[in-house]
Write a structure and sequence with these properties.
The chain is mainly α and about 150 residues long. Helix content is about 60%, strand content about 0%.
Length: about 150
């Protein structure tokens, strides 16, 4: 899933402005200008569209955790990670304080069943024998379910 889709989804789910998205990236230790953020939020067929770089997305995900849960100065800052679908899923899970049961319930509302074992495979480290890459369809359904949960 492209990073721009994740940005647009989070913006919609939290009902926040582009300015707040810039602040969230800054919370994660990154820098992005307002015009750049506007370009990232455009659809790929709109003029002025720019693909969101990996480093901005990584900083955004860390900033989202700080935005939702607060920053604990006694702990070391979060390290940026290459934002694969699995990393996006993990960071969103942490930011919104979701348990496996919460995620499974959100997906079941959309008639998409996933077992606890399948779900835990997405949260394993890459290289673990039970690791499973998270597909775009799963991440889209997760974001849709989380949006419905937060906006209802």
């Amino acid at each position: 899933m492209i990073n721009n889709d994740v940005l647009r989804s989070v913006r919609f789910m939290l009902n926040i402005s582009e300015f707040k998205l810039v602040e969230i990236v800054e919370l994660g230790g990154g820098e992005v200008t307002q015009p750049k953020m506007n370009a990232y939020l455009k659809r790929d067929d709109e003029p002025g569209f720019e693909e969101c770089p990996q480093n901005v997305m990584s900083r955004f995900l860390n900033g989202l955790i700080y935005y939702r849960r607060g920053k604990d100065d006694s702990r070391p800052p979060l390290e940026p990670e290459l934002p694969t679908n699995n990393v996006v899923l993990k960071k969103m899970r942490v930011a919104f304080e979701l348990k496996d049961e919460d995620i499974m319930a959100m997906l079941e509302r959309d008639n998409f069943k996933v077992s606890k074992t399948e779900l835990s495979a997405f949260f394993r480290k890459e290289g673990h024998h039970n690791y499973r890459p998270c597909g775009d369809q799963f991440l889209r359904r997760f974001l849709k379910g989380l949006t419905e949960r937060l906006r209802s």
